[in-house]
């Protein structure tokens, strides 16, 4: 009875496809959120809450006109992570976020997906020069933000937690 | 602009329709009202309440059903929500209902929930439905019984703790209008 009717664009990169999250991705997403690695993106959380994350991501697209994609390997459609734009209540402005599911680190997938999402957002969503909220101890994400040309703009708080706010270059400058 | 693929249904006094952007603030107001939302699942902050709204929208896009906004015909205002709710971990699809501040005491929940149930049976092909009610929520128990539902068992809900599962009469037990004359 699955009926995805949200108009979520599909983006292809060299190795990845960015597409809508689906209920059939629940096993992989629940596995990710069961692990402490998910602590930087609202985890750990239960399988039931992981389902709500998928539904909530689809709802976010409807509410905002943009949101999070699932990044999958093009060849196999195997999910490798989540990437996209988040602007729920409580955020200062839309942010570009990314995370990799278990076992997919170290291949450059996050960089590849995040660059593709950032470019698409600037061209099609009017989201240019966006921020990324990064926990101060999330050194891998901070390194990726810098590799993408983002710079530390300020230290802030998000939902009561200290965060570093990185600012991405505008598309012309990138 | 509708945020879901929900149909628009009508009753004497109400319209059941898709969530729209103008419903977001009334929904957040309800969800962060600790007293009013206690039996439903209250949130203590706007962020979590907004995310629930996104969840309710996304639920439609996964299942093809979910919560409708109940609109009061007379005022054009959102008066609550009702519909069929079935996230991961739920024992079965359930009919849920809530009524916003200022719309209680007019039979809104009964009128809306009966219409949603009729839709689920006639359009979605459901053959049975439940309602999960927190012990002590006597208003909801009364409404479930008025809808012809009966207590079946208790179960543990991951979000609400112990809940009472009420079983609704199936489509074969209701008259052609979705009414429950046999029970009144």
TrEMBL record, chain A:
Q: Native species of this protein?
A: Lutimaribacter degradans
Report which superkingdom the organism of origin falls in: Bacteria
Its name, as the record gives it, is GNAT family N-acetyltransferase
Automatic annotation (TrEMBL), chain B:
Protein name, UniProt field: GNAT family N-acetyltransferase
What organism is recorded for this protein?
Lutimaribacter degradans
């Amino acid at each position: 009875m699955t009926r995805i009717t949200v108009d979520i664009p599909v983006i292809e990169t060299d190795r990845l496809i960015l597409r809508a999250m689906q209920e059939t991705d629940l096993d992989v997403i629940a596995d990710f959120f069961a692990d402490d690695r998910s602590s930087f993106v609202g985890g750990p959380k239960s399988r039931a809450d992981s389902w709500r994350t998928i539904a909530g991501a689809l709802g976010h697209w409807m509410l905002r006109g943009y949101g999070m994609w699932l990044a999958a390997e093009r060849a196999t459609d195997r999910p490798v992570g989540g990437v996209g734009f988040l602007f729920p209540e409580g955020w200062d402005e839309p942010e570009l976020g990314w995370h990799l599911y278990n076992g997919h680190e170290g291949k450059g997938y996050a960089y590849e997906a995040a660059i593709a999402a950032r470019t698409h957002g600037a061209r099609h969503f009017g989201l240019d020069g966006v921020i990324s909220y990064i926990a101060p101890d999330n050194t891998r994400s901070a390194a990726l933000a810098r590799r993408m040309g983002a710079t530390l703009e300020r230290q802030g708080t998000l939902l009561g937690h200290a965060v570093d706010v990185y600012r991405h270059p505008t598309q012309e400058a990138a | 602009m509708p945020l879901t693929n929900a149909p628009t249904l009508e009753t004497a006094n109400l319209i059941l329709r898709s969530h729209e952007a103008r419903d977001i603030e009334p929904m957040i107001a309800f969800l962060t009202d600790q007293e009013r939302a206690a039996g439903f699942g209250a949130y203590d902050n706007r962020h979590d309440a907004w995310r629930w709204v996104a969840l309710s929208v996304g639920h439609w896009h996964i299942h093809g059903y979910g919560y409708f906004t109940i609109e009061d015909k007379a005022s054009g205002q959102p008066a609550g929500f009702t519909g069929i709710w079935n996230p991961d971990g739920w024992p079965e699809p359930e009919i849920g209902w809530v009524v916003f501040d200022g719309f209680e005491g007019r039979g809104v929940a009964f009128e809306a929930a009966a219409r949603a149930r009729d839709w689920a049976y006639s359009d979605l092909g459901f053959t049975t439905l439940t309602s999960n009610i927190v012990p002590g929520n006597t208003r909801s128990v009364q409404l479930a019984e008025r809808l012809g539902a009966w207590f079946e068992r208790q179960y543990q809900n991951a979000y609400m703790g112990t809940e009472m599962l009420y079983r609704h009469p199936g489509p074969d037990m209701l008259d052609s209008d979705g009414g429950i004359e046999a029970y009144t």
